[in-house]
Design a protein that fits this description.
alpha/beta; six-stranded mixed sheet; four-stranded antiparallel sheet
């Protein structure tokens, strides 16, 4: 049995060039996440949680430090390898949905798998399965502009699942939703973790998922603190 963590970060630092000094978004962040956990990245705006999620998703590169996800040294990947990593290892749910406006719901969900080389038949079957699970099957031929915010985010969740990723990353997934739809998205993520064994890492400043998550990583000023976010 492999007991090594699914995600391991050591002294992870991200400094954005700005003037002679630069802006430190993350500083010497070290943590590990085991397979099957639901981890919240908690912190106020500017705490570094979205930067950390971008590093985990292969959307940005650290200035220094180590980052291993599913046995992959993410910091050593080429741009082409990072593209494959984003398609196969992680699935990402964004606050702003990021659906392509000219594609239908079904086409948006299928696209990552088709780009990864999967067959259309198997991809469509998998997409329909997740859309049915997410109560979106009757909206599959609609364009994103015809969806409510909750429907758009459920489409984004289906898209994140289409390649069977080892890790689902969610960056403020309830930020653009009302309370009811936000709670529904959290319930969906909780069910993916609880009933489907998915590893979830979710960044949020809200307490909406506090009772669903198995662990918190609390950030302040680019570092992980150990006060359980009681003051956030």
């Amino acid at each position: 049995m492999d007991l090594s963590p699914l995600i391991f970060a050591e002294n992870l630092t991200r400094i954005y060039p700005l003037g002679p000094v630069g802006v430190v978004a993350l500083r010497d962040v070290t943590f590990s996440i085991s397979s099957g956990e639901f981890v919240l990245l908690k912190g106020n705006s500017g705490s570094g949680k979205s930067t950390l999620l971008a590093l985990l998703g292969g959307l940005d590169r650290p200035t220094s430090g180590r980052l291993h996800v599913a046995g992959v040294d993410v910091t050593a990947l080429t741009e082409r390898e990072l593209t494959q990593y984003r398609r196969r290892v992680v699935g990402i749910v964004f606050q702003s949905f990021h659906l392509l406006p000219t594609l239908t719901v079904l086409e948006n969900v299928c696209l990552p798998a088709l780009l990864a080389g999967a067959s259309y038949e198997s991809t469509q079957a998998k997409a329909l399965h997740w859309l049915k699970w997410l109560d979106m099957l009757d909206r599959r031929h609609h364009l994103p502009g015809e969806l409510s915010g909750g429907e758009a985010q459920r489409t984004a969740v289906a898209r994140a699942l289409i390649n069977d990723p080892l890790v689902i990353l969610a960056d403020e997934p309830t930020g653009n939703l009302d309370t009811r739809n936000g709670a529904r998205v959290v319930d969906i993520l909780g069910s993916l973790h609880r009933d489907h064994g998915r590893t979830i890492v979710m960044a949020t400043h809200s307490p909406i998922a506090d009772e669903v998550a198995t662990r918190h990583l609390c950030l302040r000023d680019g570092t992980i603190v150990d006060d359980r976010c009681l003051s956030l």
